[in-house]
Task: structure prediction
Amino acid sequence: MLKWCSRSIFLQVVLGLMLGIACGLSFPEVSLQLKPLGDGFIKLIKMLIGLIVFCVVVSGISGAGDLKKVGRIGLKSVIYFEILTTIALVIGLVFAFTSGIGSGANIHLDQLASAEAGNLAERGQHMHSTAAFLMDLIPTSVVGAFADNNILQVLLFSVLFGSALNLVGEAASGISRLINELSHVIFRIMGMIVRLAPLGVFGAIAFTTSKYGLESLQHLGGLVALFYLTCTGFVLLILGTVMRLSGLRILPFIKYLREELTIVLGTASSDAVLPQIMRKLEHLGIGNSTVGLVIPTGYSFNLDGFSIYLTLAIVFIANATGTPLAMTDLLTILLVSLITSKGAHGIPGSALVILAATLTAIPAIPVVGLVLVLAVDWFMGIGRALTNLIGNCVATVAIGRWEGDIDMERANNVLAGKQGFGFAQRKTSTAHQQEF
Result:
């Protein structure tokens, strides 16, 4: 058992999760000091995200051969993202409106602390402007995009750089090989960092349990429960249908990604598993050019869990503060959310900032009401990250099938457990797959 646990990141993360809860309950004062363990782990991961996106996207485009294929994958991805994001927003809106979540709370606006809400609103003020969003895609400088770790800006430069390499061809083959070799080094570093996941999960869970206590789950419990119920329904029904249409099943697929999902469960961040997810999708039989384009783009544009959260939280705030919503208000929420939900990944404290941005675009709902969800935002953040990650992985499968860039026989064998992702298998796999 100990030998098995020493080899399985999944079991180590679960152990870290259990020990974190126990430590948070038994030694609350000590556990409050453990927050840097979780924060440090996330910072180590984020340190490499920009380079990972750059290397993967550039390698994918430069190695695709035909730029028409790149454009085709990009167009299909955008179409898919818009459809699924809209469905997620509508589902969140319908569940929130029909359930009447927050109704009867009778919270008066003068009871709410407005200082933090005002700060968040100021940070999100510009987010509902389409022109501002498009301008934010363009970095002031290439170095600045990487220094700020702005994934959308890094993605834009990576697409341009990869396209240029593709057009130059053989004359730039040395640069292409250099970037490919650099990606091996970066992924090896990431593999080393991921080994610290159990420690990061332990610190994050111990701190959260000691600060909020288990009873904190009961605070605004209706909103949290409805959010998780909605996310579960979306994953099983909507994403399950997408997987069925793609020729695969959702439950074996989730089981295949269980180690990565467990890390996200403990850290409330999908950044921590970006490279492993990409390698696993390639191992599933999806072409590296498809994986390299869809996953990084999806991290910013295909936020299914965040979309559900956004509409649920807005209706909850309106109901809790006694703000009546007309059908025009609901349509405004939907249309504004379609814009503000894009690019949330690259903004510090994105959930609350973009929630504030959306509220500022809907005058009928008081922005100060967003302080109502502060107490449970961390718990909802776990559901957002899990749903976002599963949604992006399903998107990659769907685009791969749509593009004909997936080996279905291999995919079925992998999900059936006939072709594992263990150490023995990796030794005989490609150089990219050897990194994990």
User: Anything to note?
Assistant: The two ends are 22 Å apart (CA to CA). Confidence is low (pLDDT under 50) at residues 109-117, 422-436. Residues 277 and 397 are 12 Å apart (CA to CA). The longest helix spans residues 67-99.
